[in-house]
Structures are given as structure tokens and as C-alpha cells.
Specification:
Layout lengths: L4 H8 L13 H10 L12 E6 L2 H16 L4 H7 L12 E8 L5 H18 L2 E6 L11 H8 L5 E11 L20
Antiparallel strand pairs: 1-2, 2-4, 3-4
Bound molecules: flavin mononucleotide.
Length: about 190
Amino acid sequence: MNMNETLTVIKNRRSIRKYKAKQIGDAELQAIVEAALFAPNAMNQQKWHFTVIQDKAMLDRFVSIIKENILNSGIEFLIGLVKNPDYHTFHHAPAVVLITGDEQARFIQIDCGAALQSIALAAESLSIGSCPITSSIFLFASEKGNELKKELGIPDGYNFMCSIALGYKDGEIPATPPRNKGVINYIK
Ligand SMILES: Cc1cc2nc3c(=O)[nH]c(=O)nc-3n(C[C@H](O)[C@H](O)[C@H](O)COP(=O)(O)O)c2cc1C
């Protein structure tokens, strides 16, 4: 089958871990984030919330908190990553969307995952890079987590689901990580 524009965007999207410092234009960023609202979601419950952060000082402060919480987590794999002086949870992206959702809503993680993918594809369609980030869950891991949620205006009872870094791609596009074959079964 011939590839159309949508299929090409789906296949070309990569997790980008190197960004230009330039901020994304407001109109583009708005179009990207609003694409999330059109994702499929269970019973059209829409129990999600999107916090778009473009404040570099805030993002760097959050990375410090995440680092500290990871160092206290006892998870060796993550501790190893954080000890690298170049570590930055959001890969220095100029914009990050934190996706939170109502823990009580059924299938909320799937809803938020679908929203994340819509953001990633909308970004790719505008040649803007993205990277899903879940290690940012450690932002809310300490006692200060609730204070941070208040500071960010996250609705009560909503918890972190995932986040996505966004920015103009810098340098070469990474090669496509290999995909496992044999995971699709057609039954006719
Ligand atoms: C749920 C989820 C969590 C992820 N968490 C991180 C993360 O914390 N940091 C990161 O750099 N990449 C993260 N990624 C990106 C994956 O590593 C990436 O999607 C995978 O290696 C496939 O590469 P591709 O996105 O370029 O196709 C995450 C992706 C998903 C879907």
C-alpha cells in the first residue's frame, strides 16, 4: 500500500533527545497540545489535565528535584543515569507537557497514553521533535509532591501519568530502534 502523509508521520516520529534552545511558537504549541483533546478516551470521560511548562528555570528546578528523588529511590538503573553529569530528565527541551489524570477514572492510563501519542504525532506533523518521559514521575515522589501539584494548578485527586518533551530537533534524527516482528496475528 502507498504511504499517505499520516502513515509517514507515524513511521517517522522518533523519540528526540537533542533540542534547539529556541522556544516553540505559541500557535504551533497550541495546535500540538490541543490535538491531545481529540484522543480516544474511555466513555469520553476526559479526566485528564495538561500542564504546559515553557519556563526554563522551572524545568531545571524540576530536574534537580527529580534527580534528588531518584538518588533516594534505590533503583540502581535510574541512579546510574542520574549520576551522569549530562543527565537532564527532559533532554533540555524548551517545552514539556505534564499529563495528569484522575486516578479514580477507569482506564485513565490508556486515555493519557493516547493523548501523549496524539501530541507526539501532531508535533511530528509540524517537524517538531518530542520524547515521552515517564521518569518525571519522580517529581512528585517526595513529600513536597502535593505542594508542587498545587503550584502547577493540577486538579485535586489527579496524579502524574506521563509527560512529553517538545522542541525543535537539533542534529541528526536517530535511527529507528528495531521493532519486534511476529507480534501481529491475523485471524481470518
Ligand atoms: C511509556 C513511555 C515511557 C518512556 N519514558 C522515557 C523516559 O523517561 N525518557 C526517555 O528518554 N524516553 C522515554 N521513552 C521513549 C522510549 O524510550 C522510546 O519510545 C522507545 O525507545 C522507542 O523509540 P522511538 O520512540 O524513537 O520509536 C518512553 C516511551 C514511552 C512510551
